[in-house]
Amino acid sequence: xxxxxxxNKANYQLRKGSYQKTLMHMVxxxxxxxxxxxxxxxxxxxxxxxIGDVAPYFSANTTTGPINFPIDFRGRWVVLxxxxxxxxxxxxxxxxxxxxxxxxxxxxxxxxxxxxxxAISSHLAWFRSIYxxxxxxxxxxxxxxxxxxxxxxxxxxxxxxxxxxxxxxTKTVRAVFIIDPKSIIRTILYYPQTxxxxxxxxxxxxxxxxxxxxxxxxxxxxxxxxxxxxAPSPQNIQDLQKRLNNHNKNIDVQSWYLAFRDLPENKIYxxxxxxxx
Length: 277
Description:
The chain is of the alpha+beta class.
């Protein structure tokens, strides 16, 4: 069952098997004039969630306490990332890298949530080993403070399509889901078990998505904040004619369908960075 939005509805419906429970939850909707939403999830769904889908619902225990996802994180961006199992070498380096950038993600109003196929006790023992024993890239005596889901029964892994049978029946691949404040999946990345993720690239994608939302522009290949962005394409014949007869010195028109404009880095961060209270 594919999740969906409907306007002006007060009930958040969650269906599983033969029973149904309803949760009331007020949010600001993407729809004009709507202040509530209704979303329907199939918790038993094991298909691969798609970009544009509402993030599938789950409740889980984590190393920082229980969560109801995505409800608890409404209004914030989330980077949800999985690991095959505890005490794995590549995962250990990734935990250190994510922790080193935790403040940078939080400045972008983004929460990090990890997942590993193991129990809470195993996760905590792994964290202790990282703190006591591991020195990587000058990261030493590091506490892992972001929540890590205990997915010992593979429920979340299957729900999010993290199990790839041709790789392993019981281990997740290295998945990354970037989820926006409306709980919509905006990016999905998959890495093999042998290849560590590039956290700076994950942050770059996050900033690009936030820039798109804030300024209604697209970002070209290899874009980093401060470089020119792509102006929206013409939507009608009048806009097309204006593009072809461009007299705006701030727009670099390459062709009718491709034009660039400057967007300073400081302007981007002024718009997307979380305001300090």
